[in-house]
Request: fold
Amino acid sequence: MKKISTYIAILTVLFTACKQDEKKVESPELAMGDFVFETEYFKPGTSVNLTYNGEEDTLESLYYYMVNDKSYPVDINFNSENSATVKIPDSAQALAFNFKVDGDYLNNDKKGFLYQLKDETGNDLPGSKAALANYVMRYGSEFGIKSDKEALFNDLESDITTNPEIKDNWNTTYLAMAYRQNQEKGEKMINDYIEEVSNKETKTEEDYVALSRLYNTIGDRQKAASITEEAKANFPKGNMAKNSYGSTFSQAKDLEEKEKIFLEYKETFNEVDGNLGNYMVRSLAQAHQDKGNEEKFEYYANMMKDKSAKAGIFNSIAWPLAEKGENLDFAAKTSKASLELMKEAQQNLDNKPEYYTKNQYQKSLENSYNMYADTYALILFKQGNVKEAIVYQEKAIGEGKSGEMNERYVEFLMADENYDLVQKKSEEFIESGNGSEKIKAFYKEAFMKSNDNAEAFESKLAQLEKTAHDNYKAEIKKTMINEEAPAFALKNTKGEEVSLASLKGKTVILDFWATWCGPCKASFPGMQQVVTKYKDDENVVLLFVDTFESGDDREKLVTDFIEKNNYDFHVIYDEAIENSRGFEVADKYGVSGIPTKVIIDKDGKIRFKAVGYSGQTEKLVDEMDIMIEILKS
Reply:
């Protein structure tokens, strides 16, 4: 990729016309490397033209506009001439641009492309600094922005102090942040605010919401519950009364009690739509299906108005039946219905959540359709309808990024004795790095049908694997960074201190995790393979940093989990920051979500940072191998 400059500057460009007697025209522009806006600064309610002057072909960009503590994403749709128009809403206070070129987000040297909006005189809008600081604290790490949380909080605080008229828009968010920054100071501020609101002669429902949230922030669950009851008495059909049904429903012990709570909710609020209603009917439908009551399952499932949510529950019922090969006729009917619902959802985007852009929502619906097609294809296959299973599995694989879906596709082709296509698709999947051991076995079987030459097969397979490895290595190399790794010294499960300083000269992999983290635990079989592979390599150290975990039983939770699963992990405990809800090492390393893997070279530099888990064990092991290989070389 051509290197894109990462400075932000305001330029004044003079255009000189061809005719000698025409005057020069000043056109203010705002340049962000290869992206140029036709404006000097951004104002609410205006439309700004944007041009991309780079040479890359693939642009996938969006911007967030901020309104107080909320952020809303909007697509930037470039035309064939690499131009676009950005329409800034009247309510916007700040903007954050996220440019994705050839699959990589640009981060402006980790500063991001961040702008406070201005008024007609060019002055920053009140609240714009606070809105931008809140955005960076919440989303910055997703887009490669490095930030100082304390400095950001100070920005937010100074904006509120300087512009007291915006204080009411920020109270609970600001106070919760203050508590996270400094628990002692924050708790005093919260208690002062609680006293102020509590002394009001008449409280609004918003006051009750604020009180409940702040009591929960400081850990006073009993008082928060008392406030909820008071709010329900004063606003029996308000949001707090409505939401209380959710917690009561989830705590109910049996199905009969849940149905009774749901009926009361339905009669009180005369609705079953919305997040809470969907949650209840989904739970009831699932419970009845688990008991084998298909009639009651359909009764509750059909109450759901959101087509994509309804499709989701249909698929969640059909998939385990497909895996087990049980009740396949019912599973097929339910799964087919999920696909029809997803098609309807794709044709009507009215239910788009505010946290998605239109393009993101369409992509999400497409991914869901593919996943549900995978379910239906497996059911068809187990019913013996192989050819139709292949049709749906071909839809399911999409771009061929899922090893499991690819595996089923090749298996179906093998059952259909379509050996030529098995070879073709297997080669594509293996070469792209989205194969599996099972796909390789099918590939060999198909290869030997037409060419009974094991040596030729092994040679071809080695070539495909090398291409996949080299391409993945090149891809991973592009993600390399070079930052000083913050020092730490933490205790392990034996009470021994483990410091980064003592590991200098070694490649160190930090895997941040917690016992409650599903993706962390899903990745552990692969990480165990990595541990086993490098256990005798004294120059490679893997440390599993238990973080975002608290409670008196923390150590027991961790050790019980490790022992139960027979993992050979060297676990160290991240320390909670005093008077804060943060954790020391996670905070130093900018870890906001887990699992996160940080790979440190022998010189104590962070060279890679990998967030999340793709769901593919082989790919995870390959990724770790390549990173270690790169650092060793």
Summary: Residues 1-27 have pLDDT under 50 and may be disordered. The chain is about 50% helix and 15% strand.
